[in-house]
Amino acid sequence: MRTKNFPSNASMRMQCGAAAVELAFLIIVMMFIIAGIIEFGRVFWYADALTKATRDGARLMSSWPVASLNSSGVGTAQSIAATAANAARVSPNLDVATNVLVECLGPSPGFSVVGCVDGTAPANVRVSITGFNIAIGAMVPFIKVYGGGFGNIPLSPYTTMRYMN
C-alpha cells in the first residue's frame, strides 16, 4: 500500500515565506499603478476644469456689449474664468492678471488678433489659460519620498467663440 507524500512542516513554512515576499513585491507594484491612476486622473480633472473655465469666460465675452468691450468686458471675462477654475479647486490657483488671456480676433480662417477696442465689434473672441503647470506625483506621498515626482505638464486650454453682439 502506498502512502501519499504530504509536505513536511518545514517545507510549508518555506512556502509561506515565499508567498509573503511575492506579496510584498506585488503590493509595491500595485501602489505605483494606483498612484499613476490617481495622478493622471487629476491631470484630466484639471484640464477639464480649465477648459470649462475658458468656455465660461468666452461665453460671457461673446455677448458683451460692444460699447464697453475693452473697458469692462475683458476684465470681467478674465475674472469669470479665474473664479470658475479656482472654484474647481485647481492647484495652484489661477491669477487673473498672469494666467487668463482674453483676445479679440478677426474672422476665420486666420483668426488674427485684432485687439479689443470699445465700440468696435470683433469677429471672434478667445479666452485662454497660460502659464499653468501641474506637477505629476505631487499628491502621492510615497513618490515624494523617493525622488519628488515625475515633472511638470503644462496645460494651456483655450476657447474661441464667435462674437454675437
From TrEMBL:
The keyword Transmembrane applies. Residues 17-59 form the TadE-like domain. Keywords: Membrane, Transmembrane, Transmembrane helix. The chain crosses the membrane at residues 21-45. It comes from the Bacteria. This is TadE/TadG family type IV pilus assembly protein. It comes from Undibacterium arcticum.
